[in-house]
């Protein structure tokens, strides 16, 4: 399993995500970027920030 805590890259965000693999995390964080952080659309722009912060869970 993999885990990503959004607060690791965006201080103050309490959201965290778990999934079987990196792609499972990224599917969730693309949507989260729109819903919580004002991204215009659920694209892959955030992947470059999220991917290095994904940890084994
Ligand atoms: Zn967040």
Low-confidence stretches: none
- What is bound: which ligands? zinc ion
What integer is the average pLDDT?
Answer: 96
Rounded Rg: 10 Å
Strand numbers in spatial order across the main sheet: 2-1-3
Strand content: 15-25%
Through-space gap between termini: 5 Å
Secondary-structure class: alpha+beta
Number of strands: 3
Order of helices and strands: EEHHE
Q: Could you please describe the fold and organization of this structure?
A:
It is built from two helices and three strands, in the order ββααβ. With 57 residues, the protein is α+β, with helices and mostly antiparallel strands. The longest helix has 16 residues, at 22-37. Zinc ion binds at residues 6, 10, 13, 15, 32, 36-37.
Q: What's the helix and strand layout?
A:
Blueprint: E1 2-5, E2 16-19, H1 22-37, H2 47-50, E3 55-56
Antiparallel strand pairs: 1-2, 1-3
The protein binds zinc ion.
Quick description:
By secondary structure, the protein is an alpha+beta fold. The chain is built from 2 helices and 3 strands.
Overview features:
three-stranded antiparallel beta sheet; 57 residues; single chain; globular; 35% helix; 2 helices; binds zinc ion; 18% strand; alpha+beta
